[in-house]
Design a protein that fits this description.
Mean pLDDT: 82
Number of strands: 0
Shape: globular
Length: 424
Amino acid sequence: MPSRQPDNRALLFVFITVFLSMIGLGIIIPVMPTLIMELTGTDVAGAARLGGWLLASFAITQFFMSPVLGALSDRFGRRPVILTSVFAYGVDFALMALAPTYAWLFVGRVIAGATAATFATANAYIADVSTAEKRAGNFGMMGAAFGLGFIIGPALGGWIGEAFGPRAPFMLASVVCFMNFTFGYFVLPETLTEENRRRFQWSRANPAGGLISMARYPVVIGVLLAFFLMQLSHSALPAVWAYFSKEKFDWSDAQIGTSLAYVGVTAAFVQGYLTRKIIPKIGETKAVLIGLSAMIVSFCGYAFFTPTGSYVFLWITVGAVSGFAMPGMQGIMSRFTPANEQGELQGAIASLMSITLILSPLMMTQVFALFTHDGADPYFPGAPWVLAAFILSLSLIPFWLTMKKAPPLEEMPKPKPEAPQPAE
């Protein structure tokens, strides 16, 4: 069936879908410790250990399913993949809300990870429907939905969980997802024409393909290594933040949600405003070094200089400057990657981020539990932040050595044109 031209309602649906997906990721952070403790009878340290496995199960499923859903959307179209993902997301939240045991939470996180590839398909949808002059603006809307969702999600989860219990945020999210599915079913047209579809191939659904292809570019590989270490440490924030603040400051779910909302606001200011003003003036290399240094200082602040909870907001503000690091690294890698391989570069970056989201929650939550369980000696809730700061310090080494040896951009070899493909 030929595609229909989407109207503003279809674009609004895609915006809402990305927005809700980010709310879904953030809404569970403040209330998850309370819900796990309620279901298992464990303390905060035990809840952190179990919570790490929930986060890892989400990331593992997402890592393998993102390229699969992308390939399925190229075969069957964007509409069925997006709608199926939104519906499954609603099912996931309902499972979490009704979960009688910890095992149900685990099943829910696996379903969520399998459907979190909504981001990639939504971006493909935007690319399908946008003219050249509107594409950047429409992608900017998706970025705004991404950031706004993470600001609202934790705050909403914390406040609703405080007022109505830790299950209430999940039920609300489930209802909204099903409403969004119904809305999208009637307004979302297909945008991928029959002639642009391709058959599904498992070889194209390979999450490691982009990493393998980038091995040809030494500068890119060096910066990717630094990027991997940076993300491994940065992922400590969503992994242990709620457990740390509950254990050390005895914060309520609402207080945890408010602090995470502040993280989102400061990050949005730095990444949405300051990076565009400052990075062009100081250059990408200095921007990365400043960003990594700010993150190290903030992690050390969380670990050693938080006599009361109010000090946390100081270190959140300092840590927001770490927003310089990500665009700086991406800019460097993009400059040293041929124009016809930019998509593979983004695939490699996405693969590394997924890997860190698997490893970091397990590592950071286990360290937290080790130093906070009943009878822990020494007792030190800040231990994960020390580990994160150490890993960040290591990331400076490959980045500095790589940029020290990096050739001028004009000396980079140009890509060889591909041989013409035989007609099918």
